[in-house]
Amino acid sequence: MVKYLQSHLLRNPEEYDKEQSLSLYVLRGSSDIENLSDVELLTLSGYLTIKSVEYGDTVFLRYPNKEAKKAIAQLYLQQQLNGQVLGQVGAGLS
Questions:
Q1: Model-level pTM?
Q2: What is the dihedral of CA 15, 16, 17, 21, to 10 degrees?
Q3: What is the DSSP track for 21-34?
Q4: What is the pLDDT of residues 80-93, one digit of tens each?
Q5: Residues in a beta bridge with 54
């Protein structure tokens, strides 16, 4: 996951809290990690979970719980800080 994030952008975690959709075909097949979308990777790694299946082959996804939502926010923060801590980018406590 870390290598993926180093070479791919992760959307703002709030966007993943909105319903996402994928084809069941995508989740059934095997893919090279470099060719996965962010939503596919988050689903395959358990950060997003299937909430419903509609139209026969479309899955609708959301965070499974608050812990997954918080974990994605932490990954996003680490990606945005690029190895720095909050105080180094001027976001320390005042």
A1: 0.66
A2: 110
A3: EEEHHHHHS---GG
A4: 776 666 665 555 55
A5: 58
Question: Could you give the 3-state DSSP secondary structure of residue 45?
Answer: coil
C-alpha–C-alpha distance, residues 72 and 87, integer Å: 21
pLDDT in tens, 39-69: 888 888 888 888 999 888 899 998 889 898 8
The backbone region for 30, taken as left when phi is positive above 0, alpha when psi lies in -120 to 50, beta otherwise, is: beta
Classify residue 63 by burial, with Cβ atoms within 10 Å: 0-12, 13-18, 19+: buried
Identify the sign of the CA torsion 79, 83, 8, 24: negative
> Looking only at Cα atoms, what is the longest distance across the chain?
53
User: Do residues 89 and 83 touch, judged by C-beta distance below 8 A?
Assistant: no
* CA 63 to mean position of chain CA atoms: 9
Determine contact, residues 64/37, Cβ cutoff 8 Å: no
